[in-house]
Amino acid sequence: MKNPARTRVRAAHPLPIRIMHWINVYAVSCMLFSGWEIYNASPDLPFTFPQWATLGGWLGGALAWHLSAMWLLVFNGAAYLLYGIYTGHFRRDLAVPSPRAILRDMGAALRFRLGHRIGHYNAVQRLFYVGVICILVVEVLTGLSIWKPVQLDALVSLFGGFPLARNIHLAMMLLIVGFIVVHLVLVAIVPKTLVSMFKTVPVDRQEAAND
Amino acid sequence: MIKFRQKPVITEDDIRRDVEKLGRRAFLRGSLSLGGLAMLTGCNLSTDSGADAALKSMLKFDDKIQSMLFDPERLAQTYPASAITDPFRFNAYYPDWQVRPVPDDWKLEVAGDVANKSSWTIDALRNMPQESQITRHICIEGWSQIGQWSGVPLHFFLRTIGADLRARYVKFICFDDYTTSIDMASALHPQTILALDFLEKPLTPEWGAPVRLRIPTKLGFKSAKHIRVIEVSNDYSGGYWEDQGYDWFAGV
């Protein structure tokens, strides 16, 4: 699909996406580091997080951070979802790929043969980004469940009751950390993606052969 | 993750000793500086970032949202006797070996905007209507357990003593020096009780003898043990944990 008539260069990441991405980085960092301090108050798994990695200093301080940053996370996340739906970003860039495309790109990725073109998401990337968006939604919903288990009792029963909702909240946190690790490793392998998240970088002009 | 360990110049333990002497403001500031260490490497501990004031106003905002979310009709889930947590975990702001026995001259006093200020004995409280509940006790630390309490519904007690039900706060002062306060709407909730029994037996000292608050619509630290004075008032008075930075409304 060639479109030489297009005069304006499409940015790999439109400015609103870049702004929301970095707000999200800050909000998720606050939620993770303060969440680890909250977890440490009553650890359900056989480990605690080291003090240097936590935010808030003690349970009360961590909760103050957690219950403040949650507004930033939720409003920024809601703005992102609305933006993604109304501008067609989700439809155009994040359409859930077919299982065959996932297998193909996953195979290529594992053989280090998956090229990266700025502004285009391959099937593995789509799977990851759609996945982490869903995980963040579940994280927010389980968070609301354990914040207000009586007032939001319908939500908490959706997650199987207070203790289970809390465990799901914890499990989603671990998946988010896993996503961040993979995300950062891939950015380290292809550093130009980091540049494209700061300044306007045009999309790679060559279109995908297989998309 | 990269193996990288940052040695803070001041550890949490160093700070904790000092901040415990200070008030809630200093407590939050000390903790925020630690947060600064985690968030921005090289952040100077001596800098007052002003973020503590921002966090406190966010907690106040959260309290407003929480009181809006609070539905006076909505009941906390109740459970069958088989769901009761056994053994039940002891929790207080001190270890269990410091639990205080009931003073010989104990009486329940009432104060503030109430018509009848005479004090109450346990027998008088037992002669009032009793309400039993098996509900989940949720700690701010995240753990929770199911217990059984029974006693006098607080709304009945407040009406009996002629409390001004339009007052904003009900405060609890305990003989173990614990204090807390709740909003009137939560005090009048049908499941808010002055508990006299735990697991169908009169409260023993470790469970808050002779009378404790049991309020399943709030976090555990609101369910004050060993109550000595109940005060109805329009003046905000915080509480033991609230003054250190736990959010005041603490609804669930």
From TrEMBL, chain A:
One of its GO terms (cellular component) is plasma membrane. The keyword Transmembrane helix applies. Residues 13-198 form the Cytochrome b561 bacterial/Ni-hydrogenase domain. GO terms for biological process: respiratory electron transport chain. InterPro entries: Cyt_b561_bac/Ni-Hgenase, Di-haem_cyt_TM, Hydrogenase_cytochrome. GO terms for molecular function: electron transfer activity; heme binding. Its main location: membrane. The chain crosses the membrane at residues 21-39, 59-83, 127-147, 167-190. It is found in: Cell membrane. Keywords: Cell membrane, Membrane, Transmembrane, Transmembrane helix. It is a multi-pass membrane protein. PANTHER family: CYTOCHROME YDHU-RELATED, NI/FE-HYDROGENASE 1 B-TYPE CYTOCHROME SUBUNIT. This is Thioredoxin reductase. It comes from Thalassospira marina.
Automatic annotation (TrEMBL), chain B:
PANTHER family: BLL0505 PROTEIN, PROTEIN-METHIONINE-SULFOXIDE REDUCTASE. It comes from the Bacteria. This is Molybdopterin-binding protein. Transmembrane segments: none annotated. InterPro entries: OxRdtase_Mopterin-bd_dom, OxRdtase_Mopterin-bd_sf, TAT_signal. It holds the Pfam family Oxidored_molyb. Signal peptide: none annotated. It comes from Thalassospira marina. Residues 103-241 form the Oxidoreductase molybdopterin-binding domain.
